[in-house]
Design a protein that fits this description.
It is a single chain. The chain has helices at 21-39, 53-82, 108-137, 144-164, 172-185, 188-216, 221-250, 256-259, 273-284, 304-308, 320-323, 339-348, 367-379; strands spanning 7-12, 15-19, 87-93, 96-101, 261-262, 267-268, 288-292, 298-303, 332-333, 352-357, 360-366. By secondary structure, the chain is of the alpha/beta class. The chain has 2 domains: 7-165, no CATH class; 256-379, CBS-domain (Roll), CATH 3.10.580.10. Helix 2 (53-82) packs parallel to helix 4 and helix 5 packs antiparallel against helix 6 (188-216). The longest helix has 30 residues, at 53-82. 35% of the residues are buried.
């Protein structure tokens, strides 16, 4: 559900900040919307300067607004890192921002603190912009150039903070609701189920309001359509989040070594691609194999897709060492890692993760095998 592609713009608190291409769409729409609003803003009877100034102010206000959304996500991330949860990246996309956690929260106290941190930052920023607005508006030399943007930033942050506190998962308010139920009942599944239902109710309510805007409010077409689109996104995400929780609980008592494919053959760098196909891929049906040098050190990975891109006439000439891709840190996992703590990482992997310990290959964990295991566990009768 969340975007993974984009381009990196910064690194804050050790977290990559990424902009997804869909963000550009909403940035342009919000920039023009704010520009038009500023152009018509009744700034104490003083007209806003004509020409391009309303649109310049609108897009600058949009930049500040998205900086506020980033601050919201960084607040979540800061609390997460304080509690030992690694945040890999924050991505800005068409529906706002999302922080990508390396693992799920394991206790309701941490969940509650993380959930509250974002709206608290947003309300704080709303207060700052309101004070600045009042200060500028009360100045004898006041003008609409700053008054309008500051007022809009105050109202937008106030709305975003209130919206995020709606009691529906996966909104922040839904996470607060889940944390409280989790603490009271001690049952994460039931708490997530209730919060997920709350999220679906909130989503349906948003879509209903959006439909009302379209049919009954003059000029409400854009706002109504946008509310329906966000409602659909929240509805799908609330259901997906509950499913992910079921997945996590299904593997709570399982380690990587319990599910990995053991005795993975090591491919020498000098192995020809023809031999690689005949003696490895056609025999073991694994998605990839580790490539090792003469000392037995893993130097890379070769997968089935690598063969597809090479002309078969060259398979007897090229060897595994020539086509192997370098092994990266995010492709390796430890055998004693608990699956519920690393499930997010496994599901984000490209077909598989190589299981290694002390530099030695212990096995391969494939996403297909993980999904088969989860399906079997979630379909099993409850005790």
């Amino acid at each position: 559900m969340f975007p993974r592609s984009g381009f990196k713009i910064a690194r804050i608190l050790g977290i990559e900040i990424v902009i997804n291409p869909t963000w550009l769409v909403i940035f342009v729409l919000i920039g023009f919307f704010l520009g038009d609003t500023i152009r018509r803003f009744p700034a104490h009877g003083k007209p806003y300067p004509g020409g391009p100034w309303p649109w310049i102010a609108g897009f600058l206000t949009a930049v500040v607004f998205f900086a506020c959304l980033l601050a919201h996500e960084l607040s979540h991330s800061y609390v997460a890192k304080r509690h030992g949860i690694q945040i890999n990246r924050i991505t800005l996309f068409i529906f706002g921002g999302v922080a990508e956690m390396s693992e799920d929260v394991t206790d309701p106290g941490t969940e509650l603190k993380m959930a509250i941190a974002g709206p608290a930052m947003t309300f704080f920023l709303a207060g700052v912009f309101y004070l600045l607005y009042r200060l500028v508006a009360s100045s004898p030399t006041r003008g609409p150039i700053l008054v309008a943007p500051l007022y809009l930033l105050f109202t937008i942050n106030l709305f975003v903070g209130a919206f995020n506190l709606l009691p529906g998962f996966p909104l922040d308010g839904g996470r607060v609701f889940r944390a409280i139920l989790w603490k009271i009942t001690g049952d994460l599944r039931k708490a997530t189920r209730a919060a997920s239902i709350g999220g679906q109710v909130v989503a349906i309510g948003m879509a209903a309001v959006g439909f009302f805007f379209i049919v009954a409010v003059n000029g409400g077409m854009f706002s109504g359509f946008w509310l329906i689109l966000i409602g659909a996104f929240v509805f799908q995400l609330s259901r997906a989040s509950y499913q992910q929780t079921l997945f996590r609980l299904a593997v709570a008592d399982t380690k990587v070594r319990d599910l990995m494919f053991k005795d993975v053959p090591l491919v020498g760098e000098a192995t020809t691609l023809t031999s690689l196909r005949n003696n490895y891929f056609n025999v073991y049906h694994l998605p990839a194999f580790p490539v090792v040098d003469d000392s037995g050190k893993v130097t890379g990975l070769v997968n089935r897709d690598d063969l597809v891109t090479i002309n078969p006439s060259e398979w007897d000439v090229l060897n595994a060492g020539r086509v192997a891709r370098p092994l990266t840190e995010d492709q390796v996992i430890e055998p004693d890692a608990s699956l519920d703590k690393v499930m997010r990482r496994v599901l984000r992997a490209d077909q598989f993760l190589l299981v290694m310990e002390d530099g030695h290959v212990e096995g391969i964990l494939t996403v297909d095998e993980l999904m088969r295991y989860i399906k079997a566990r979630t379909n099993a009768p409850q005790q």
